[in-house]
Amino acid sequence: MLPTNNAVNGVPSDATMAPNPSPSSAAAALGARPLVLIVEDVDVSASLLCVQFRKLNCIPHRAENGQVAIEKMYLVLMDLHMPVMDGFEATKIIKSSSDCNIPVVALTSDTREVNYRRCTEIGFDECLTKPLKADQIKELLAKYVPGHTSSD
């Protein structure tokens, strides 16, 4: 995801991450710091929650309301072949548990047709070959991140 660097009262508002499908996921079991989206319109409440989640070794992010939360979950770039949980399985979970239609773009160096077919069946929005070039990244941002403008 592509975090912004905005903050409200020191509370990050960069809520650009995919939802964590389950606290018992393999990543959590391996000690990864969970990303927690706090959707709260009261600055003091959001700040207190962020402090508490940081103390629990989480990475809190803030959105001021539900619409902002959904709009800030822009884009997932997903490698297909990874240990523990591959991109196919992770995308199945994201696509089946998300009401906000987060775009997921497959990234792979394995160009076999079987991968492209599987990506389509699972529901990836696109399947691209690594490495991505700068112009491809700009195109993805223009296509999937509402209102994004490139700084160059």
Automatic annotation (TrEMBL):
Region called Disordered, residue ranges: 1-23
Keyword presence, Phosphoprotein: yes
Residues recorded with modification 4-aspartylphosphate: 79
Matching InterPro entries: CheY-like_superfamily (IPR011006), Sig_transdc_resp-reg_receiver (IPR001789)
Record-level GO BP terms: phosphorelay signal transduction system
Record's keyword terms, sorted: Phosphoprotein, Two-component regulatory system
Keyword set includes Phosphoprotein: yes
Domain Response regulatory stretches: 35-145
Top-rank taxon, per record: Eukaryota
Record-annotated membrane-spanning stretches: none
One Pfam family, short name: Response_reg
PANTHER family recorded: HYBRID SIGNAL TRANSDUCTION HISTIDINE KINASE J
UniProt protein name: Response regulatory domain-containing protein
Organism: Discostella pseudostelligera
